[in-house]
Protein 1
Amino acid sequence: MASEKPLVLITGGSGYLGQFLVQALAKANFQVDLVSGEGLQQCINELAPLVGVINTAAMSSPGACEKDSDTAREEEAGNPVNVYGKTKLEAEQVIQERWPNHVILRSSIIYGPQSPTPVARPLFLQFVARQLAEGTPTSFFNDEFRNPVFVDDIVRVVLKLLEPGTALSGRVYNMGGPERLSRVDMAVKVAEAWGYSPNAIISAPSSSVNRGVASPADISMTSQKLEQELDLTLTTFSDALAEIG
Ligand SMILES: NC(=O)c1ccc[n+]([C@@H]2O[C@H](COP(=O)([O-])OP(=O)(O)OC[C@H]3O[C@@H](n4cnc5c(N)ncnc54)[C@H](OP(=O)(O)O)[C@@H]3O)[C@@H](O)[C@H]2O)c1
């Protein structure tokens, strides 16, 4: 790590978002279990004095949280519809009560290039591209709305929050891209941007699949507050697709 970069602890460094943050800020790796606490004290001792902690670690699969709600739990007004969302809200409350100097980013679906080390779970963008490239007819939901956010934008936001002059503690920000899109919308934009035929895209309601876990129909969000207070512009889905290539 270059000496001018702040010393921060990134949890979830092996995950999708964590890998990009590690790339931007990395110095050393530690094995820590955040449920049992194993390895955490040694990690903090060796990294002291820390400027901050970037917590990206999570049971990030809503289905897994639903099946193992006790483990999921061990990690602004919200209206969570499943265990994943409830534990996210609980974690926010713990952070707000215990660490006044915090910023919480409420992320929408994160997309971007394949991570340096592929993660075990499927990535939506790469899944779409593969299905379209193969011409495999695939159903995409037309009635669930999200604001997909480019992983590079999250890294940009985090780096900006770490700048010495940035004094934005105690904030909760929406961290979603500028467009409200359904999965069908996203798939169509991928086809347009990367030159695939859209013929394999089947528009379907979310009720056509039993995922075993409730999923909110519309968690579209505006991230204007974040853009204004950090003085940056978040990338549109199409611009990001052009960049990812
Ligand atoms: N990806 C999205 O579209 C999306 C959307 C909204 C919110 N988010 C949130 O954004 C954050 C980052 O997401 P992501 O996509 O990068 O998730 P991810 O790829 O699933 O990575 C999760 C990370 O958490 C670590 N982890 C899980 N349990 C742990 C434990 N008990 N102790 C230590 N580490 C543990 C995992 O480590 P191992 O690999 O060792 O298990 C992994 O590094 C998460 O909080 C997620 O809920 C993601």
Note: The chain has ten helices and eight strands.
Protein 2
Amino acid sequence: MMQGNNHPKGKLILRTLAMPADTNPDGDIFGGWIMAQMDIAGGIMAREKTCSRIVTVAVESITFIKPVHVGDVVCCYGEVVKIGTTSITINLEVWVKPSLNRPSREELKFQVTKAAFTYVAVDHSGRKQVIQRDCVC
Ligand SMILES: CC(C)(COP(=O)(O)OP(=O)(O)OC[C@H]1O[C@@H](n2cnc3c(N)ncnc32)[C@H](O)[C@@H]1OP(=O)(O)O)[C@@H](O)C(=O)NCCC(=O)NCCS
């Protein structure tokens, strides 16, 4: 089994709570819900870094390390790893603070998922556009 490090890499972008509506029939949180949270978090960071409308173009190396349970606090951390001409790639890590209802809570916080999300800066017609580096918005 792949194991995360002891500390999240990058900046905390998003925190939310895993709710019963986000589970599969076995009571674990859907991977797709976690991916959506990561896409939102990466999108926030990509917008801040590019000062542009952005679209997700690719998701690479997504790894679900541990399950997420209802009541866990889900925290998405992001780190820009590449800025190209029109694209920006962000490594995202998801960590959880386990629910108080979990039977064993040895770890106060642990990594559950990681992936690299790539976004492309686009204009209002959806055409790619060059990223303005060092923009402030
Ligand atoms: C994103 C989009 C505008 C790119 O248009 P395009 O003219 O085909 O662009 P290109 O193939 O030249 O790629 C643009 C950039 O994305 C990068 N890119 C494209 N495919 C990639 C992939 N699979 N992985 C990583 N980077 C990728 C390219 O390397 C390029 O980066 P650079 O300019 O920094 O060098 C277009 O593909 C699109 O609109 N896709 C749908 C996006 C969307 O709707 N996302 C939401 C999910 S439903």
Note: The mean pLDDT is 93.
